[in-house]
From TrEMBL, chains A, B:
Keyword Lipid metabolism among UniProt keywords: yes
Localization in the cell: Peroxisome
Organism: Diatraea saccharalis (sugarcane borer)
Domain Acyl-CoA oxidase C-alpha1: 289-433
Name of this protein: Acyl-coenzyme A oxidase
Length: 602, 602
């Protein structure tokens, strides 16, 4: 009761009229009440450490201070994880829960300089190292004796791997590889943690031996002295500069001036270079596929988290905010009563469910394929690769649009960093690829002749639409199928609302793509439009309940507009008062510039 | 010749194959060679002062330092303008050229805390003050004896003016108005320069006299002591906190605790309060219309400038950047050779022309209406109001999409602040309204009965589409008509390319809105699609020439990706090296946190 009192009255009214059990939906989303309980326990455990608290909100810090704060937080986080593992003997699942997803991003809101150590450095050692190499490196990496990252992209070269310029030339005289950056465009560019954090790096380079190039291979290179952290001779390393978002990730550049590493620093699980320089070919590249698949599926889950946060913020704000008049002489309505607002929010909510269930479906498919791989069957690998690539592209693009739409749906206040929405857009936007790359991946499998490429380019505008349509069809069918399974044991009211969301999603995309549906007539469009609006009206009373069920606690949501109690205006003012500019009534620039200008004495 | 040598070879090749005279187009856009010369002269004059130079790029500064730097720059800029006016006796046109448009934004890249002084404070004094009030205030304001801003929006209330809560209650005993903020939601929120810069403010407040409310009226209120700059008693003022962009504008909040101002600080050109408290009604509100119209037309021009910058950056980068392979064993093509890229860039270029010419057309229409107003005719005013509102909404939305599409078209490097595109998105995005407000403005003129409002809400998704379609139709027709006039005296090659751009724009929007064109059949769509792709192919060789013609010099473009010489990679590295983090090989956080963590001693 006492908790209810402090909640904004409009928000409370929304909760009172919700037709389904929010807790039931939360349990369903977590995969059962035990999982919900476990999740909350970990959240409590981690958040009570207070690492996420900031004296001055990071948006007021300088670029350099932001990096320093993110190193501090990342280190304290790992210290805590170590302690928890020792004290409470919690397993690796918790470890992952703390590092990724909602909780990790709540603590390191603008990215972590240690992410690539766990997400790319260690997995690549595991996937591409021989047993001996794994024995040597993985323990050191897990123990954080060394901090690594993974460098592939170059200043002049992105996703097209064959275009990379960095060379690793084998010298049989000394049994060493010589790493070299022949041009400015060959500098490694982008890897997180590379600039000032990592002291080791897996470098992807063109392997030359006996005068022949054998393509891209992975090499472990030490970048900095383990004791002083000074860059080693021949290593040119630094940060690439300020970015739209992710300014806590310490993205770096890296150039080599004939840097020598021992032969066994090439990861040789697949391909090998023998002592005399003989190249022995790789039996398969399935593990490269595997790592990328894992990264993509995780990314789709991440996007779902961001979208869930964004729609939670925008929906609660829309229940609290009143604006304009629908009818003369009536009070200003909640903006949630505007159909255009319902449209933006509910499509966002249904997309979270659609993507979450599709990611789950893809994950299951991946596990099946991995089992097949172990049995030597590799036929479904390219299909899965193309699918994951395409889903990733559609999901990241839609997520960016959803977050931005939520920001705009909050009007001017969405422009405040205190809303958390601009920062979130920066993060989501970092994951966007141009869908065209994926089309290439898919189309390559179907190509028929040499002239095809020109034709492909000429018609690629349509092709992209076509392959996007294909992806969306898969998304819709997996969303529909997986929801059917999900609601089997759900109560009737919950089942009803989840199925309404599926309908909304499908009708929305049918309307968006009317041009693709050539057999549709004008009356069909009108019918779809009417259906869509009726679904919005039916879902309207449950909008707040639907986002409450995502169960994102305030510390993780981190938004003045979206907190559970709906005290939007109080929080906006509280956040404003945290600005260092507000600590002094008169800024020194008045005395230095403004007053002299006003008195004609500048 | 010597200049040509340093230009990237791909970019030079693009320039060599351009089919029209870039200089001719520049002259056409400027409105004649004399204007081009004059513009360049002013640019030279202002830029040689070096105010735009920064020791450390502002993206590396803290929020407080950013404000301090923008005050410094704004003050130096005005000092220079004063000097130029005295020395060279240049008129007001130059004054405007320096403050607004390309040049002003090049110097104060993230907004100026003095903008509202010129854009709202002075114009409102001129528009709403009596002759006596103008005599008293305008000289002081122009002379910068005082610095003002304009406060309307409140924390809990946006564009719906009747909902504002701040009160100004007349006290006939002392002949004063008492300004008061009855609630937290009534705090003024957002005005630029309000936080720590302005010492005066025009405050929009609900006027109460003799116990009656007469709606919103403007009051001049002193906020800070003219000498010490300390806030006056009863004034609660500060900044609203960090935002997505515009962090140089010093947006503030403002609350009143029974603050008394003299009766004649109410601006009384239209409505009056007599000494005894009698309210005398306004004869018309035409001047409020006028100010807003002016602001909107200027805004459309601003959006054109941002779009021109964004497409210049993305097009030049697309000529320099090579990626992937179209055909096996061929070198990586320029990304400008991909049809999908051409599509993004050329639609952006044609939109700049479309919006520029539509703004010009609106401006002429506005001047005609103003002439009519002076003659007592006011019939066309609401139509013009609705049109300008609607065009503003469509243009700001499209500009934001265009800038963001250009950013994404630059791949990962578009995510770097050194590209200038993220900051530009922040600026353009600040101007976006939800198109729905404009629909309201238009629809209000057509409403027929009481039940209409419910119907309006229920079908507003379609209505917005319909009114957007109406706007786009006007845009297309004004673009077409104005281009016809523009090219009358142009050379044939230039005429051809400008008309191709119009075709591209129209065909693109026809394809985008196939759903609206119910009479269209499948074959028509195919025909349009083929036409569209043929236009892209024809325009492709002129892409770089078309953006060169915008003639945005490097200091104004301020982008590592878009400079005239195309030295993209060199500039990216040069910019990276400016990061304060790169001044030290080892950051102190290594010794404080990383090393202790690695040694288990944190």
């Amino acid at each position: 009761m006492s908790q209810t009192k402090s909640v904004n009255i409009d928000l409370q009214r929304e909760r009172d009229k919700c037709t389904f059990s929010v807790t039931e939906l939360t349990h369903l989303l977590d995969g059962g009440p035990q999982n919900t309980e476990e999740r909350k326990k970990i959240e409590d455990m981690v958040l009570k450490e207070g690492i996420h608290n900031e004296d001055i909100p990071s948006e007021y810090l300088s670029h350099k201070e932001k990096y320093e704060q993110s190193v501090k937080k990342a280190c304290l986080l790992f210290k805590m994880i170590r302690r928890l593992q020792e004290e409470e003997n919690t397993g690796m699942e918790n470890y992952r829960a703390v590092l990724s997803g909602m909780l990790g991003s709540a603590i390191l809101q603008d990215g972590s300089p240690l992410t690539l150590h766990y997400v790319m450095f260690i997995p690549t050692l595991m996937g591409q190292g021989t047993v001996e190499q794994q024995a040597y490196w993985i323990g050191r990496a897990f123990n954080l004796d060394i901090i690594g990252t993974y460098a592939q992209t170059e200043l002049g070269h992105g996703t097209f791997i064959r275009g990379l310029e960095t060379t690793a030339t084998y010298d049989p005289a000394t049994k060493e590889f010589v790493l070299h950056s022949p041009t400015l465009t060959s500098y490694k560019w982008w890897p997180g943690g590379l600039a000032h954090t990592a002291n080791y790096c897996i470098v992807m380079a063109q392997l030359y031996t006996k005068g022949q190039c054998h393509g891209i291979h992975p090499f472990v290179v030490q970048l900095r002295d383990e004791d002083t952290h000074m860059p080693l001779p021949g290593i040119k390393v630094g940060e690439i500069g300020a970015k739209l978002g992710m300014n806590g990730t310490n993205n770096g550049f890296l150039g080599f001036d004939h840097v020598r590493i021992p032969r066994d620093h090439m990861l040789m699980k697949n391909s090998k270079v023998l002592e005399d320089g003989t190249y022995v070919n790789a039996p398969s590249s399935k593990l490269t596929y595997g790592t990328m698949m894992f990264v993509r599926v995780m990314l789709v889950y991440d996007m779902c988290n961001y979208m869930a946060k964004a729609v939670t913020i925008a929906t609660r704000y829309s229940a609290v905010r009143h604006q304009s008049q629908l009818k003369p002489n009536e009070p200003e309505p909640q903006i949630l009563d505007y159909v255009t607002q319902q449209h933006k929010l509910l499509i966002g909510i249904s997309s979270v469910h659609a993507f979450r269930l599709s990611a789950q479906w893809l994950w299951n498919m991946y596990n099946n394929v991995t089992a097949e791989l172990d049995a030597g069957e590799m036929e479904r690998l390219p299909e899965l690769h193309a699918l994951s690539c395409c889903l990733k592209a559609v999901v990241t693009a839609d997520a960016a649009e959803c977050v931005e739409r939520c920001r705009l749906a909050c009007g001017g206040h969405g422009y405040m960093l205190a809303s958390s929405l601009p920062l979130m857009y920066g993060l989501v936007s970092a994951a966007c690829t141009k869908v065209s790359q994926c089309v290439a991946a898919i189309e390559q499998r179907q190509k028929t002749g040499m002239a095809y490429e020109d034709a492909w380019n000429l018609t690629s505008v349509q092709l992209i639409s076509a392959s996007e349509a294909h992806c969306r069809a898969i998304l819709m069918s997996s969303y529909y199928e997986e929801t059917q399974t999900l609601v089997q044991d759900a109560s009737d009211p919950l089942k009803k609302v989840l199925l309404q969301l599926v309908d909304l999603y499908v009708v929305y995309w049918a309307l968006q793509r009317v041009g693709d549906l050539t057999s549709i007539c004008e009356r069909d469009v009108e019918h779809l439009q009417a259906w869509y609006e009726s679904l919005l009206t039916q879902l309207r009373p449950n909008a707040v309940g639907l986002v409450d069920a995502f169960d994102i606690r305030d510390e993780i949501l981190h938004s003045a507009l979206g907190s559970y109690d709906g005290r939007v205006y109080e929080r906006l003012m509280e956040e404003a008062l945290k600005s260092p500019l507000n600590k002094e009534p008169v800024n020194e620039s008045f005395h230095k510039y403004l007053k002299p200008l006003m008195r004609g004495k500048l």
